[in-house]
Amino acid sequence: MSVVVWWLVTVVMVTVHSASAGVVELNWEVEYKLRWPDCKEGIVIAINGEFPGPTIDATAGDTVIIHVTNKLSTEGVVIHWHGIRQNGTPWADGAAGVTQCPINPGETFTYNFIVDKAGTHFYHGHYGMQRSAGLYGMMIVRSPKETLQYDGEFNLLLSDWWHQGSHAQELYLSSRPMRWIGEPQSLLINGRGQFNCSLAAYFNEGGLKECKFKDNDDCAPTILRVEPLKVYRLRIASTTALASLNLAVEADCAHVQGHQLEVVEADGNYVAPFTVNDIDIYSGETYSVLLRTHNPTPSRKYWISVGVRGRKPNTTQALTVLHYADAPEYDHLPYPPPVTPRWDDYDRSKTFSKKIFAAKGYPPPPEKSDEQLFLLNTQNLMDKYTKWAINNVSLSVPATPYIGTIRYGLKTVNYQKPPGKKIVEDYDITKPPVNPNTTKGNGIYNFQLGRVVDVILQNSNVLNGRGSEIHPWHLHGHDFWVLGYGEGKFRLGVDEKTYNLNNPPLRNTVALYPYGWTALRFVTDNPGVWFFHCHIEPHLHMGMGVVFAEGVDQIAKMDIPNAVLGCGLTREFLMNRGRH
Amino acid sequence: MSVVVWWLVTVVMVTVHSASAGVVELNWEVEYKLRWPDCKEGIVIAINGEFPGPTIDATAGDTVIIHVTNKLSTEGVVIHWHGIRQNGTPWADGAAGVTQCPINPGETFTYNFIVDKAGTHFYHGHYGMQRSAGLYGMMIVRSPKETLQYDGEFNLLLSDWWHQGSHAQELYLSSRPMRWIGEPQSLLINGRGQFNCSLAAYFNEGGLKECKFKDNDDCAPTILRVEPLKVYRLRIASTTALASLNLAVEADCAHVQGHQLEVVEADGNYVAPFTVNDIDIYSGETYSVLLRTHNPTPSRKYWISVGVRGRKPNTTQALTVLHYADAPEYDHLPYPPPVTPRWDDYDRSKTFSKKIFAAKGYPPPPEKSDEQLFLLNTQNLMDKYTKWAINNVSLSVPATPYIGTIRYGLKTVNYQKPPGKKIVEDYDITKPPVNPNTTKGNGIYNFQLGRVVDVILQNSNVLNGRGSEIHPWHLHGHDFWVLGYGEGKFRLGVDEKTYNLNNPPLRNTVALYPYGWTALRFVTDNPGVWFFHCHIEPHLHMGMGVVFAEGVDQIAKMDIPNAVLGCGLTREFLMNRGRH
């Protein structure tokens, strides 16, 4: 079977062609607001005054039209629709410098795209570190033929929060020497956390005092109010800037009849269901889990905990409450909240990742790839600036979006070469870099359409001392198959044999574990320019990403709206074109 | 004598046509930096790493070409050349939304203009509150035929500094209810101040401890090192966001042979010299003063103090030192620093203002005006937002620069009516507004060329309680004659008779005193669009300004560079023009 046919099968499988497709049209104003996200005042980016932004609720096949008005004083803004593939509308992907120019203050830009695929998605800022400033929200795309059965649902959007503002954070990270922003002050669930107080203080949790708030306080938790003997879908997304997370419910044990989580969806794709008491979730990932309620007597409340994984935490667990109907409103919970797994129990994390397989009915990936792309992840030092680099090139996103430069074939733009495709043979990933230097680059990888591409993400030791960090990699415009994870350096011609080509899950985000590798496969079936980057905001800010161009010939023929190209060299070109 | 002839005479008088005009060409990178402006770390906008930005040193007649590269992460930027009239280059005035679009991050814009007139000028950001963030520097334009005689010179750029960042300040001021930013934490001289410590601690000044720093510290003072029996020109500019200031030297008194300041220049215009021990200076103003050194025996150091006027201060005086050659480097000064005048001694301030007259040789203003424009200054409450308004309209600067809308006669733009020209007859300026409401507006005043315009700025009581604030008004693109100051409400047909039409000083900035009026006259001799606004940054941010368009017919024929119009509706128009 040829590659092209595989690709078509895949697209047909996941695309909904609804005769009754609707339109979801929204007007959004983006502006800074004073809020109390963790019971301490801070500055957030709000949408129509809401933080997090409004939840988009659409049905697969719908056209989503969002008129975004930038009400920031001096800053541009864009919004990326995380998980939406933007087939045919690559200019609506909302990645500044890649697919569009930032929307200027005082101006309105209209995003217009089809949500062709059901799933739990979210959206967020993709310019500077505006995601860290709170520019995010949920995006639910419902299936007209939903196969999951449940009685109710809750959205849980997870994020992390610093008391230092995002502008200062950007500056710290870009300073020489780099000043690290540290661990977040709080974890937020739906934009709500508790700093310096605890919902569970009466268990002497962290020695904190009890939180006092009214129900309408910014930092009062989102309570999950449930009925007995029902099934609830929890739609969970992580848009953290830094933290890898674990969400845990009270499990069955000696003193308590607890709950379980049946994982059924990941990044908008059904997975073969499996049951756990807690899930790991990395920034950029989404999950749906089904939670079956029992019938507690007397009726009571249960904890849900969210804690940090993969970095030595300095942040209290976020808490919220599963509240059975008729449970006393103000009574304390009888037991302390569950404690999420130890931060450095990586084996447990990998075990969870490896439990995820595609649900039945998804075709397997193409058997063979046409190209193999090795991306070595390193922390570097460039002219005393700390950078993250791929194959020794730290990405510097240009002011003119790639999509515009390609569309108009601007000869004035000379991109550097892309970072290279081959495995760096002599690089010892177990030690700090021998030559920590790197270069800044803006080169992109060009792919023809219909190619099957394998990407092997290779982790390595950090700049100083012994250590290796988790990097959740997110690909725009695509889902990819996660073919496997491995330890140490990828062995060319050997490790390929361990790939799961039978039922690998489709994702748009995948974790790269310390000192290990992660292999993924995707088909270049979406003409456009697509960002592929570590979803940790500071890492991206320090250059940890690459850019894929697919079908350059097709991009050159696209009817790209002028409104996305109104900056840099495309603006100059298009404005001067009219001068006679 | 007709008005037009007067105007020509004026222009000839102050314009230098130098056969040997040179070019000053500079490359600037604008970016945030961590600095210690007042011995406490803060975030400043630096130019080429310098805060304040580099001093421009040019000669009248020179062409100044500055390539400004915006290295801010997500914010636009512009630079206004305060005091330069931009004859023939109104698009280079650097007022966002008025004369140009902000320069996008990653882009370079070239300012290219002639500095036709000698004087002590400065430059600063004119977008959002970027001036508050420290985007400013000195601009010295030398006369090829300088009539002043002096042996050396020093630049003193005065500013005020908050520990709260400018983004937060903007948000506070725009919040509902408005949150006032308070008085500055420090006053800075050439970007250097001392918070929480004092150079004069050994006199128990403010109960502060003594400052300890090395000479190259960000907050070590600019020392004025002088020789005996010489004449020094101090070029003093105030770019404060809020504070009105007084600069005082140690005067002659029982224990000390002090110094005097001979005021010789104001806003780039020579004034009839007069001698004082201290000068008032409002934001937007510049002065040159001549300081004659004597021959102290033994050689010693003298204080220079800068303190707050016109607002109840909560900020320590800024200090620096006049250091005679051979004075011991590390010895303490023998006497405490001079204390600047009491903040609310307005009579003293007015006395100083009224000492300023044009130097001999300047022609008087036109005898009569063609138009009279009354601008009532009020503090208002609009939908619970605090605003400042002119004739009950609070200015909202549009995203598309006025100059571009006019150039291309864009019919899609419907400006509101300007705020009106007439005196508000029944308004009681001595009481809080009876109807505190206002409207937001973007209307502009249109003037034909060659008109003589009188503007009467009328102050009033603030929103709550009894009080009236100082507003230093700055006009772009022009000097104006200050015809007079008065108390209370301007009496139409009466107060005009008190105007000084003989030797009024030419300025570009003038103070409006509490509960009073200030009258000025200018000639509409400069085709372009010119901002006229209160130079207090928070007041401007809250709408305290108007816009003058001069010679709309000429603007429509101007060859305005596309680069200044690359935003909003002009971008759309110019980009679409080429689509065929």
TrEMBL record, chains A, B:
<keyword id="KW-1015">Disulfide bond</keyword>
<dbReference type="InterPro" id="IPR045087">
    <property type="entry name" value="Cu-oxidase_fam"/>
</dbReference>
<dbReference type="GO" id="GO:0005576">
    <property type="term" value="C:extracellular region"/>
</dbReference>
<comment type="similarity">
    <text>Belongs to the multicopper oxidase family.</text>
</comment>
<dbReference type="InterPro" id="IPR001117">
    <property type="entry name" value="Cu-oxidase_2nd"/>
</dbReference>
<dbReference type="InterPro" id="IPR008972">
    <property type="entry name" value="Cupredoxin"/>
</dbReference>
<dbReference type="GO" id="GO:0005507">
    <property type="term" value="F:copper ion binding"/>
</dbReference>
<comment type="subunit">
    <text>Dimer.</text>
</comment>
<feature type="domain" description="Plastocyanin-like">
    <location>
        <begin position="30"/>
        <end position="145"/>
    </location>
</feature>
<feature type="domain" description="Plastocyanin-like">
    <location>
        <begin position="154"/>
        <end position="325"/>
    </location>
</feature>
<dbReference type="InterPro" id="IPR034267">
    <property type="entry name" value="CuRO_3_AAO"/>
</dbReference>
<keyword id="KW-0186">Copper</keyword>
<keyword id="KW-0560">Oxidoreductase</keyword>
<protein>
    <recommendedName>
        <fullName>L-ascorbate oxidase</fullName>
        <ecNumber>1.10.3.3</ecNumber>
    </recommendedName>
</protein>
<keyword id="KW-0964">Secreted</keyword>
<dbReference type="Pfam" id="PF07732">
    <property type="entry name" value="Cu-oxidase_3"/>
</dbReference>
<keyword id="KW-0732">Signal</keyword>
<dbReference type="InterPro" id="IPR002355">
    <property type="entry name" value="Cu_oxidase_Cu_BS"/>
</dbReference>
<dbReference type="InterPro" id="IPR017760">
    <property type="entry name" value="L-ascorbate_oxidase_pln"/>
</dbReference>
<dbReference type="InterPro" id="IPR011706">
    <property type="entry name" value="Cu-oxidase_C"/>
</dbReference>
<dbReference type="GO" id="GO:0008447">
    <property type="term" value="F:L-ascorbate oxidase activity"/>
</dbReference>
<dbReference type="InterPro" id="IPR011707">
    <property type="entry name" value="Cu-oxidase-like_N"/>
</dbReference>
<keyword id="KW-0325">Glycoprotein</keyword>
<feature type="domain" description="Plastocyanin-like">
    <location>
        <begin position="430"/>
        <end position="552"/>
    </location>
</feature>
<dbReference type="InterPro" id="IPR033138">
    <property type="entry name" value="Cu_oxidase_CS"/>
</dbReference>
<dbReference type="Pfam" id="PF07731">
    <property type="entry name" value="Cu-oxidase_2"/>
</dbReference>
<keyword id="KW-0677">Repeat</keyword>
<feature type="signal peptide">
    <location>
        <begin position="1"/>
        <end position="21"/>
    </location>
</feature>
<keyword id="KW-0479">Metal-binding</keyword>
<dbReference type="Pfam" id="PF00394">
    <property type="entry name" value="Cu-oxidase"/>
</dbReference>
